[in-house]
Design goal:
Blueprint: H1 3-13, H2 21-38, H3 49-61, E1 74-78, H4 86-92, E2 97-102, H5 105-118, E3 123-127, H6 130-133, E4 143-149, H7 154-161, E5 165-175, H8 180-185, H9 187-192, E6 195-204, E7 211-219, H10 233-236
Parallel strand pairs: 1-2, 1-4, 2-3, 4-5
Antiparallel strand pairs: 5-7, 6-7
């Protein structure tokens, strides 16, 4: 085990999360795919190996510091980009059935390459808009956990993500800076979409101490039929 993987292992162990040799190999394969594909398309501005392990892999897994993901069966990652946090969480918790929805087909092609290389089972990759798939049976009001990582403001994310959460399930919005003002502006959207902020967790990434926040939102009832609105509307006219 090299120093970067050792540090990764140690920092996760400090949070009571154990990683095995196969999982370490999968993360290294993920890193190699990310760097190879990043040369032909813009997946991430973070390419140094230690930074990818810290700012992408560790940051994605941080959700497991505040939720018991062993109890989660179905996860939808909305606007996943290069696969964060969905793929790292799937590596660490392989029993989870993962769905990733992203509007750019090239990113879905990259993620399919990652899934193939790592031998991941139970992953569905969807090229499409959250607003459209959030209206489909089998996707709507269905998932134990839905994630989004720094995709948009919370008032917009609520409409993208809460329709996918089953009643009693959780939407986890993963943010950088303090989201207190975003949460205030999202009060109306939470009410309309039947969500309630349960907890907000703050931590800092190892080494550089960058701030991170995780907003855990409980879905209290089924999504009203008119949400999500048609594609493009949530961004143009947020429920703020």
């Amino acid at each position: 085990m090299d120093p970067i993987q050792q540090h990764f292992t140690d920092t996760l162990a400090a949070q009571h999360i154990a990683i095995n040799e196969q999982q370490l190999e999968q993360f290294e394969g993920y890193y190699q795919e990310l760097i190879t594909w990043n040369e032909k398309m813009n997946l991430t501005g973070i390419t140094e190996r230690d930074q990818v392990y810290n700012k992408h892999f560790y940051d994605s897994i941080s959700l497991a510091f505040y939720m018991d993901l062993n109890e989660i069966q179905t996860l939808a990652d909305i606007g996943s980009g290069a696969g964060f946090p969905g793929i790292p969480l799937k590596i660490m918790f392989p029993h989870i059935k993962l769905r990733i929805i992203d509007s750019l087909n090239k990113r879905i092609q990259f993620l399919q390459s990652v899934v193939n290389r790592l031998g991941l089972q139970g992953v569905e990759l969807i090229h499409g808009r959250a607003e459209e798939w959030g209206q489909k049976e089998g996707y709507r009001d269905h998932h134990d956990l839905v994630t989004a990582r720094a995709v948009a403001k919370l008032s917009v994310l609520n409409e993208f993500c809460l329709p996918f959460v089953k009643t009693g399930g959780t939407f986890a919005a993963m943010k950088g800076i303090d989201p207190a003002e975003e949460i205030q502006h999202a009060f109306r959207s939470l009410g309309l979409l039947k969500g309630k902020v349960r907890e907000v967790h703050h931590f800092q990434l190892p080494v550089e101490q960058s701030d991170r926040h995780i907003i855990l939102i409980t879905k209290e009832a089924a999504t009203p039929a008119k949400y999500p609105r048609k594609a493009g509307t949530p961004m143009k006219e947020p429920l703020g």
